[in-house]
Amino acid sequence: MNQLSNAQRRAASHVDGPMLVLAGPGSGKTTVITRRTRYLIEDCHVKPSEILVITFTKAAAKEMRERFLRQTKSGGTKVSFGTFHAVFFQILKLAYGYGAENILREEQKYQFLRDSVRKANLELDDETEFLSDAAAEISRVKNERCDLNTYHASVCNSAVFKKIYDDYDNRLRRNNLIDFDDMLVYCYELLRERPDILGAWQRKYRYILVDEFQDINQLQYDIVRLLAAPEDNLFIVGDDDQSIYRFRGAKPQIMLNFEKDYPKARKVVLDANFRSTAEIVKGAGKVIGHNKERFPKEIYAAKGDGFDIFTHEFSGQEEENACIVDKIKAYAAKGGAYSDIAVLFRTNTQPRLLVEELMSAGIPFRMRDRLPNLYDHWIVKDIFTYIRLAQGSRKRSDFLQIMNRPKRYIGRECLEEEEIAWEVLLCCYEEKPWVAERIEKLQSDLKMIGRLSPFGAIHYIRNIVGYEEYLREYAEYRNRKAEDLLEILDELQALSKGFQTFGEWSAHIEEYKKELERQAKAQERESNSVSVATMHSSKGLEYRIVFIPDANEGVTPHKRAVLDEEVEEERRLFYVAMTRAKELLYVFSVKKMYNRKGERSRFLEELLE
Questions:
Q1: At residue 480, does pLDDT exceed 80?
Q2: pTM value?
């Protein structure tokens, strides 16, 4: 206990009753959890088997267990460390006899969903994207225990969503399988309906400690409350300012209302940041202080002042990326390790341009998130199909893909051969001159596209052919934001800029794909590499140097954040990114993004106040 700060000591020596520990970034929360567990066993003579420590990931649970065992004397192995899902599945296992074979595998899940979606006869341009959205929405319904009869779906028509949900759920039951969300739902129902089973688990786990409490969703909290009763020895550790998983059902209000749920709860604020310099702590505090839904707290840096946070506004992303690459090179040239550096983005699609620059510069990097290959997107495939036809392709499959994008009212009945013939097609529509007119326009458009550079061709397809208008109509039909789809075209056009011919660009794309595969394999071996990550996946990590590019409105906060609570979550995400930095923090913005005017993020303005 002597090595702990006063606040850490007060938390670690707490014994009975509920306690709320507000643990800011770099405040030593893991130390407090492991030290308090040890204190219960060694000083208060609590049986190790009566202690349950819950966290969110297997890796975190494993690391905490190992750290605890290094500190403790014999007997500590009987303390239970696990994730919510592991703990709740153990309860179901003993009650219902479930085994590993009853847990739905990820590939099975998507196959079941695919079958359910196809049964609903939906017309989809991108089935993979729809399945991912549908899976997330089904998860939300289960975790928030929504009534399907009154639920308003966002992924598709509510009645169609209900059919998909019911069909998917029936497939699980027929196969005696449960998905990860069912583990929570079934566990809650079991404990509510069987007081005898609940009582047995309450007696087993008399002391419950929850790490990263700000990430808890309502269903998880309800189960934990059941287990902790009636003694309520519930010790929760987290930071409401780092609650960034709203899309998974996590809400800071759960933590903010803890003292209402437990009026006798004691509260300790771990107010020392042992990670970052004072300038970084002060800057991050200025930004997060603009949130209204939070516990007020003053965090101080245990380290010295350090360097000022470096901010700069570039003319565009090319200049911004060149600066990041130059600074990484300069640091490495002085003997610094690449692994000291992280570049943190708001979304997983943003890094594409930087990744190309890192590849060209020969800088090893590690992607902490899957970088979707832009060239695999259905919109990009449409554009490339136009280009192939412009270069002379007559494949039926190519023509079918774009013939009604935009709408030209061309039917399949005149396209029986493997290769299309324009004369035959025009003959087919002699009695429908308005369709023939559209076919002739497509012919002349393709001739024009064939004469243009890649950049010019994309511009022509978007604006003259009318593909952009088609996307707007598609977005309205699918209840999506047209800007999200148009952004794909913006990015593709930006990537096409440096190429004079399609052949040159095509060769580069092939090289890019190979390099991505090579980088993915190298990541497993190369530990000394720059981390390229989203703000979400950087949580819990720390780096000597952090870059936050594209601190612009519409990026961070994201353009989808409209409501006050959504903007506050975006600000918490920005705060998480800032507090990953130990010594140097760079926050960049751009005046122009994808040929559109860029506006500096309000979070950057708050930092500069």
A1: no
A2: 0.88
What SS3 class is residue 257?
coil
Residue 494 confidence (pLDDT) above 90: no
437 close to 462: Cβ distance less than 8 angstroms = no
User: Which amino acid is located at 381 in the chain?
Assistant: K
And the tokens for 360? Answer: 């060209």
**Cα separations (Å) of 476 from 124, 166, 169, 588?**
14, 26, 29, 34
Count the Cβ atoms, other than its own, within 10 Å of residue 92: 18
Helix, strand, coil percentages, rounded to 5, for the chain: 55, 15, 30
Secondary structure (3-state) at 149: coil
Q: CB within 8 A of 258, min separation 6: which ones? A: 18, 20, 236, 265
CB distance 7 to 270 below 8 Å: yes
Contact between 134 and 117 (Cβ < 8 Å):
yes
| Three-class secondary structure of residue 581 per DSSP | strand
Classified as helix, coil or strand, 258 is helix
User: d(Cα 350, Cα 139) in Å, to the nearest integer?
Assistant: 26
Phi, psi of 356 (to 5 degrees): -60, -40
Contact status, residue 289 vs residue 565, Cβ threshold 8 Å = no
For helices 218-228 and 84-96, angle between their N-to-C axes, nearest 10 degrees: 60
Question: Based on C-alpha coordinates, what's the Rg of the chain?
Answer: 28
Q: What is the pLDDT of residue 525?
A: 65
CB 87 within 8 A of CB 54: yes
Contact between 367 and 516 under an 8 Å Cβ cutoff? The reply is no
Residue with tokens 């990537």: 495
Here the tokens at position 400 are: 């079918």
Task: Tell me the pLDDT band of 75, cut-offs 50, 70 and 90.
Answer: low
Q: For residues 56 and 267, which has the higher predicted lDDT (pLDDT)?
A: 267
Element spanning 81, H or E? strand 80-83
The whole-number pLDDT of residue 580 equals 97
Low-confidence winner among 37-46, 375-384, 414-423 (lowest mean pLDDT): 414-423
CA dist., res. 286 & res. 536, Å (int) = 21
Q: CA 157 from chain center: how many Å? A: 25
Give the Å distances, CA to CA, from 585 to 124, 220, 531, 535, 543: 43, 35, 14, 14, 10
| Distance of alpha carbon 285 from alpha carbon 300, whole angstroms | 9
Contact status, residue 582 vs residue 284, Cβ threshold 8 Å: no
* Nearest of 105, 103, 116 to residue 182 by alpha carbon: 103
- pLDDT at position 76, please? 67
Nearest-angstrom CA–CA distance, 343 and 575: 15
DSSP 288-321: HTT-SSS-----EESS---PPPEEEEESSHHHHH
Per the DSSP assignment, residues forming a β-bridge with 313 are: 589
Average pLDDT over the chain, rounded to an integer: 91
Nearest CA to 593 among 311, 310, 321?
Answer: 321
Q: Check: CB of residue 550 under 8 Å from CB of residue 592.
A: no
Sheet order of strands, 51-55 included? 80-83, 51-55, 207-210, 234-238, 19-23, 266-270
Query: Which residues make Cβ contacts (< 8 Å) with residue 152, sequence separation at least 6?
Result: 158
Q: What is the b/e burial string over 467-485, where b = at least 16 CB atoms within 10 angstroms of the residue's CB?
A: bbebbeebbeebebeeeeb
Is 36:50 a contact under the CB 8 Å cutoff?
A: no
